[in-house]
Amino acid sequence: MIRVLFVCHGNICRSPMAEFIMKDLVEKKGLSSQFEIASAATSREEIGNPIHDGTKQKLDELGIKNYGKKRARQMTKSDYQEYDYLIGMDQYNIRNMLRILGGDPDHKVYRFLEFTNNPRDIADPWYTGDFEQTYTDIVQGCEGFLNDLKQKDGSVAKYL
């Protein structure tokens, strides 16, 4: 089982978009049983709130409808033991993740687009309003992450 936690500031835009796009990708590849995928926030600002309407709209366009019960939650220190990969959307998220976790001794914390040929932050659509660019970046991150797993993990490599 490969356990992945996507993290952004509020857990209403980027990280839930990544969570549900990744779930959709692994389901289409017949790998759902090999993954546990979730998302969380570094802040407490949106705890309990549903995902942002812009993220809902993009997921709806893609035919991804299983996000309905998703509510924002804050990342906790115990998530470090629960997940193999803790993936932040930008440097600010990484800094806050490391503060919450108290460090990264097992090297489980990554910035999402570090798995691509163009490592950079994913801009927060809460501020930019550009959910389409966020989607494009997240798909790149998902594909890069799966390619990275393909090279590292023989058990999933044959399916990717």
CATH topology: Rossmann fold
Q: How large is the share of residues in beta strands?
A: 5-15%
The average pLDDT score comes to: 95
The number of E-state strands comes to: 4
Sketch the topology as an H/E string, one letter per element: EHEHHEHEHHH
**How does the major sheet shape up?**
4 strands, parallel
For the termini, the CA-CA separation is 15 Å
Strand order of the largest sheet: 2-1-3-4
CATH superfamily, by name, is Response regulator
Specify the helix fraction band: 40-55%
Poorly predicted residue ranges: none
Q: Report the total helices.
A: 7
| Class from secondary-structure proportions | alpha/beta
Shape: globular
Task: Walk me through the structure.
It contains 7 helices and 4 strands, in the order E-H-E-H-H-E-H-E-H-H-H. The model has no long low-confidence stretch (mean pLDDT 95). Helix 4 (91-101) links the parallel strand 3 and strand 4 (109-111). The chain has one domain: Response regulator (Rossmann fold). It has a 4-stranded parallel sheet, sandwiched between helices. Helix 1 crosses helix 6. 43% of the residues lie in helices and 13% in strands. It is globular and about 35 Å long. It has 160 residues and is an alpha/beta fold. The protein has helices spanning 14-28, 53-61, 79-82, 91-101, 125-128, 131-152, 154-157, and strands at 2-8, 35-41, 85-88, 109-111.
